[in-house]
Design a protein that fits this description.
With 515 residues, this protein is of the alpha+beta class. The chain is 25% helix and 36% strand. Residues 1-46, 377-385 and 410-416 have low confidence and may be disordered.
Length: 515
Amino acid sequence: MFLSKIFMNWFIKKRIELTCLSAITILFLCAGTVFGQQADAQGVISGEAPQFIYGEFIYADVDTKNNRLLIILNDGLWQYNLDTEQWQFLSDLEGLPDDLDEFEFAYNIEKGILDFWDRGVGRVSEVKPKSFSVERIDRSHIHKNQFKHQPFIREGNIYAFGGYGYWIWKNYITYYDRNLQEWSVQNVNPESLVPSARVPHAGAYSSSLDEFFIYGGKIPSQEQRADDQYTSSHVINDIWSFSFSENSWNKIADLDQSYQFYDPTSIRHISRVNGISSSAYSNQSNLWYIPTSTENTSDGLVFVIPIDVASGQIGKSILLPAIESNQIIPTNFLFNTNSGNLIIVGIKKITNRVEYPIEVIRISEDSLVSELQFVSSKEHNNWIYGLILILLTGLMATFYLKYRTKQKDELQKGENVFTEEEIKQIQWLKSDEKLLLEYLFDNRGFLESMKIDEAVWPDIDNYDYCRKLRNDTINSINKKFRTHFAIEVDIITRVKDPDDKRRYLYGLNEDIMDF
């Protein structure tokens, strides 16, 4: 009896211990499941795209340094790796001072950060791309002054053109100065023409030309008050450029009124997209791809109008069959300079749904250029004017060819054309261009690109951005010399590095230089 009692006590004690151990084990397993789900949420989701919620917003921009897309939806920031084609949720961005849809968004490649600022301009916040820590960096307030403005990034600063606010339509450019932590108005030459005040359709900035371009938009009817809430508006299709070197505007062309700008927010699924993704601009070819569509956007026919901003030529619209075949509604248009691809972000066409998978389509610029056909922007001009233009062009071409032939003969004889002093007196070179030429003069022969970058842009430690600046500056210098002096050769040339055939060395063309 005594032994039986001892055994029973021992059994009860062990049973309690086992029960506690089991409970603890279950708690750990549950906790592990929860934490594991959280870890999965931050990790790569293979084969599963994020979901767009009906009626919500979608922002997008491309990070060429890391070859990825950055997509912002109502749940936060997503990444699409353009190499692996995999999605990854990055952050809910809860540190921002307001809801996500209260901001405009762009990836600032010069600074390597995500920029957020008020839709009407004002507050500015930076988001670090790795820690996703949010820092408000302005000494401003919610301006409510430029709703529906066209944004762009120039030299690491945020710029905004046009928009509407406080009962006035705007036609000026403002910019956020990171040093002053405040917004300022861009100076314009008092003798310059200016575009009409508007809510622009699209815009693009060319770092190689240092020019900003706008396309069309909505303007108030002239016979009505602009500050009246019932004022009607009408659509314009003009194209303007703003030169930062000259602080002046120039009207490039007028698109045919039959073109209808493709605005995804006109589709009831989508409430808002960020302005930088409303069109795609290629700094490589200086072609600006403006999306257009038929009146019934549900038929899937989406086109792009290619515009050569350097010459002002307008190409015939090119159908994007990839949109139709993939059955998506395009939302954002971007360009990847790494691969030379037009990137289109969109949502899948699925009926009877409130959630739509995000789709990414890439189209090679080469395939678009192969279909490129330029047309006159003023086809309605009288044929007589066209005939006169042809005759004048023929006469100019004759004199031009004679001059070129003479110049070519001189170059073949080895006669030098430019001296260092002559180039130093040139007024139409920008500061970076002058600095690069002076460095090449002081260091004869062909130099490594890294040495050039360190000498001309010592404050920039981003290799990709330095390389872009170098290439853009060299291309700009060569283009300007070709134009101003009517020469057929480049003043800055490159040769293969004899020690490493994968690299190039850069130097002045000795055939046209007098050292």
